[in-house]
Design goal:
- Two copies of one chain form a homodimer.
- The first copy, chain A, is mostly helical.
- Chain A has two domains: 1-52, Orthogonal Bundle (Arc Repressor Mutant, subunit A); 54-190, Tetracycline Repressor, domain 2 (Orthogonal Bundle), CATH 1.10.357.10.
- The first copy, chain A, is 69% helix and 0% strand.
- Chain A has nine helices and no strands.
- In chain A, helix 1 (5-27) crosses helix 2, helix 4 (55-75) packs parallel to helix 7 and helix 8 (145-165) packs antiparallel against helix 9 (176-191).
- The longest helix of chain A has 23 residues, at 5-27.
- The radius of gyration of chain A is 20 Å and the shape is elongated.
- Chain A starts with a helix and ends in an 11-residue tail after the last helix.
- In chain A, 35% of the residues are buried.
- The structure holds a DNA duplex.
Chain lengths: 202, 202
DNA sequence: GTCTATATTTGGATAGAC
DNA sequence: GTCTATCCAAATATAGAC
């Protein structure tokens, strides 16, 4: 194998994936074809099979890439000792991440791609992202799993409604602070400060 | 035209639509074909075009039907003078409606069907449903549009997370009461009772 | 109103030359 | 590794007989 052969492979795979994201944004997550991908990168369709064994494998790689970006976005949220500030920043970052790329949101969080199941390999970044969220929440004293679940429902709901019903506007985006504050109020009421919560009702 | 000709047409259309819902639940919203529909109702594919001009027209009819069911579900929520009880019931009814038919949820609220745009005719029931929600909220003193938007984000988020991440369980379903209570707390804090709210921040 | 037959297009994927 | 050529299957939709 020539020097840099693996790098060339990786670069080609990357070029293909970037073309796929662009095509997906233009034609929908399931609205682009192997021939279109090939045309976008300047080869013929069969050549793609040198780099990906199937179209499913391409979706799988996109899923991994999207989740890695999500994990990075979670890690990039500035950490604050103030719970309200921290959650406002987290909510804003999450909604921004989702709205920035609706197709990515659909692939990562809505799972509406018919028949698609990510491989364990591609699911790993998603686990890392969730762990990062868990750690950030623990940092401001939120440790109950059901609280985290309620949070993810709240912020994915904001993003989903924004994208589905006001894709060009900010009708739900501008509710992120209010949503975070509402959530904080629940915590303050349930937890009575910052003590470790017990088994009381959510 | 023979007596009952229109009834026969309507009955045939209805039979086709019921087959479509069943196929969609089995194979996904975009995972069934005209031939499969035809086989399910006992005719050949071309015969379907007597009742629907295209597959898009079928989706359009499904969209209208789903929204009519949603409107009816909203109207069926028992009315309570107690705000908290009312919202708990509304949240539970909404999530139940969504989880009962994931494909319907996807068609009505997620809008991920590539290229699908409902006709004005089919959109009408959706407007009626939203108006019913607005009226129910007004009944317990909630009149601000942004409050209604936050509510829809909250409950669609619960349904979406439930379907995407725990389709066989109840991990988010069991958070509906807590979500409703959290929302009520926001109202009680923002509105200071039941007086007509002004322009204060959400 | 339903059928057979088929037009037309398109999809993912493979064979084998170079 | 890339290509041409093609397989094979399937899709929506239409034409025209009955």
């Amino acid at each position: 194998m020539a020097l840099g052969g693996e790098d060339r492979q990786a670069a080609a795979r990357d070029k293909i994936l970037r073309a796929c994201w662009e095509l997906a944004r233009e034609h929908g997550l399931s609205g682009f074809t192997m021939r279109q991908i090939a045309a976008a990168v300047g080869v013929r369709a069969p050549s793609l099979y040198t780099y990906f064994t199937s179209k499913h494998a391409i979706y799988d790689a996109m899923f991994a890439e999207g989740n890695a970006a999500f994990r990075d976005a979670v890690l990039a949220v500035p950490s604050s000792a103030n719970r309200r500030e921290q959650l406002r920043a987290a909510a804003a970052a999450f909604v921004r991440f989702c709205v920035a790329d609706p197709v990515r949101f659909q692939l990562l969080f809505q799972r509406t791609l018919p028949g698609f199941q990510p491989s364990p390999r591609s699911y790993a970044p998603a686990v890392e992202a969730l762990e990062a969220m868990r750690a950030a929440f623990a940092h401001v004293g939120i440790t109950r799993p059901d609280h985290l679940d309620l949070w993810t429902a709240l912020v994915t709901g904001l993003a989903s409604q924004q994208l589905a019903n006001d894709p060009a506007g900010d009708r739900w985006i501008r509710l992120t602070d209010a949503a975070a504050d509402m959530f904080v109020a629940l915590l303050d009421q349930a937890g009575a400060g910052r003590t470790e919560p017990g088994a009381e009702d959510l």
